[in-house]
Amino acid sequence: MKNHFELFGLTPAFALEAESLERSYRGIQARIHPDRYAHAGDAERRASMQWTTRVNEAYRTLKSPVQRAKYLLEMNGVDVGFETNTQMPTDFLLRQLELRETLAGAKQPAALDELLAEVRREQRLLEQGIAQLIDGSKDYAAAAGEVRKLMFLDKLAAEIDQAYEGIE
Amino acid sequence: MALLQIAEPGQSSAPHQHRLAVGIDLGTTNSLVATVRSGVAAVLPDEQGRALLPSIVRYLPEARVEVGYAAQARQAEDPKNSIASVKRFMGRGLKDVAHAEHMAYDFADAPGMVQLRTVAGVKSPVEVSAEILKVLRQRAELSLGGDLAGAVITVPAYFDDAQRQATKDAAQIAGLNVLRLLNEPTAAAIAYGLENAAEGVYAVFDLGGGTFDISVLRLSQGVFEVVATSGDSLLGGDDFDQRVFCWVVEEARLPPLNARDMRLLLVKSREAKEYLTTHAEARITARLSGGEVVDVALGAEKFCEITQTLVHKTLGPMRKALRDAGLGAADVKGVVMVGGATRMPQIQRAVGEFFRRDPLNNLDPDKVVALGAAMQANVLAGNKPSGEDWLLLDVIPLSLGIETMGGLAERIIPRNSTIPVARAQEFTTFKDGQTGMSFHVVQGERELVADCRSLARFELKGIPPMAAGAARIRVTFQVDADGLLSVAAKEATTGVEASVVVKPSYGLADVDIERMLRDSYEHAKDDMHARALNEARVEAERLLEAVRSALAADAALLAESEREMIERQVAALAAVASGSDHRAIRQASEALNRATEEFAGRRMDAGVKRALAGRKIANLDL
What we know:
Number of helices of chain B: 16
Helix content of chain B: 25-40%
CATH topology of the largest domain in chain B: Nucleotidyltransferase, domain 5
Oligomer: heterodimer
Strand content of chain A: under 5%
Strand order of the largest sheet of chain B: 21-20-23-24-27-26-25-22
CATH architecture of the largest domain in chain A: Up-down Bundle
Low-confidence stretches of chain A: none
Shape of chain B: globular
Structural class of chain A: mainly alpha
Radius of gyration of chain A: 19 Å
Strand content of chain B: 25-35%
Largest sheet of chain A: none
Number of helices of chain A: 7
Helix content of chain A: over 70%
Number of domains of chain B: 4
Structural class of chain B: alpha+beta
CATH topology of the largest domain in chain A: Monooxygenase
CATH architecture of the largest domain in chain B: 2-Layer Sandwich
CATH class of the largest domain in chain A: Mainly Alpha
Distance between the termini of chain A: 46 Å
Shape of chain A: globular
Mean pLDDT of chain A: 91
CATH superfamily of the largest domain in chain A: HscB, C-terminal domain
Low-confidence stretches of chain B: 1-14
Number of strands of chain B: 27
CATH class of the largest domain in chain B: Alpha Beta
Order of helices and strands of chain A: HHHHHHH
């Protein structure tokens, strides 16, 4: 099994049929999950845990658009460099400031719901662009830039999540 | 057309003997044991036909122990030696215990897990829990007529690593082979889901005696997938008793009470709480040791009012679980109610209002967890043919992290990750020739280490000496299917394995467990050697059966010489297994385990390939 896609019998691509991934994942788990080996010997129990751990990791990576994109770019020798490459287009940064101000001003769950929906909408748009750049034009450098934007929005979504807890 | 039955490659078609396996609900208030007999899960009652075992252990002089109803009857008379709700102390320090000042126990002041002074000496909550488990084990063995092959023991989903480990240690001391630690709401979902052929998203609301869990699961075609779980491991029916107790003390203007009166009023408070489930008012009457009589009436409305903050505490976790699942209340098809405390009308109302639907109460909230655990034990013991079994995908409830500079917690494995899960992190040395390193593992969602649960400090030793910053130590955090953490470390440039020494913050060291095991043998006047021999034999039989069936199914994955080598080890183990040297049996078992390591890996690989091949064939039908 060279990569996560192959593990699930999929062609490496950003556009991915979630149902197909899930079917493969469940089919594999049904055969190797530790519950299948609970009464076996130590060697099999250990092997089952290691393999299931790996399958879970692969599934988690492919299921998340950000992780999937990062993984595909790495497969093609491109590091997204979220920590090192902090240069972002000005219009994107301005939009981020705007969203963060909305977050800071949100004092009701309904306001957070609305903001989260907005963030999700922008994420979907970015994902469509990334699919085009990776699967279509294979412009990995440009895709990396879009993935960084997606990661920004992921962080914002996590902060919105924290904000809910603050309100409650 | 007649269908031919063809055994699938990789799966043995040889029938095997039914293994005795049980599910145990080790509850805060009551414990139960259940099993699957002739395909039906049932709770095993005691000789008097009682299903529940009150989780109360009373220590008496001369190493006598009473567990259950007998201990319950005497608890007010002998409060310091009668330990109730011990589950709340599992894997906890004294400062974590709420209302310690209202408890009638004699706590020993020691770091780490809470300890209790009794007439039988200082006891750890692990030993107290082991007493309960022993009674349930004996009940099961008597009723099923044989040694148990294994047990599934349930734990609150929101239990952290220390609490889970403490539960597993208790089982070990009680002489149980733990097939799996299973989350209580997940066990309930199995019982509910199978009984009702449920499909879709369900929530399980589990308010027990001492813990609260809320799990969101997706049920589809034999797969139980936990999407998110949340809760409060310090919230349960006990807290409602405590509120009533405090109200009584205030209402009756009672002076500070002694241990006996405290326990007496607490028992009366619990009775009043239960009475209020079906009545508008409960009278609480008691004669205290000084002769004064308490006589107060608590109305249902007042009861709701004094417990409102407790009910409110369930809302945050419910919201969080749904948010983590990325779902809204409307996406949930049904809410399964579990735990005796969900009988309270104010709880039913709160859940109904939150999910905007009537909660599902068609299962006995006291028994459903044990029944689900029994069903899972039956599958894990290998008693269900493939195709009739199901797949359970559970998660880790709390994030795992390590302490970094400035007392901050860096998240390594996020909450709600499907288990088993592992994450590796690289560290480097900061001094020339440094051969050791230590780090602090914490569990929780907060940024500051001080606000998280301290799990353990790990010390790495045997790092090869190098210049500062040159070593690359790859530390792997592995959480297994029981939700338990283990840590392994390797220096990446040399491949040298560092040894990992674990210092649990609230757990027991291996030497403590060994001592407790010895004590438990002596106490039971068991022959330690006979027990060790029996355990080694059972283990050897299990291993032999597993390897033989693996060879029968997948010998094709081995070269001739490899197969011969494994068969030699099988023969060697079979030769000593009937002997009386338990060390020789253990050694031969270990040798066989080592000899089959590569084979086991290839079998997993083949399993993955077969799963994909199966899918391709299935796709042809479309």
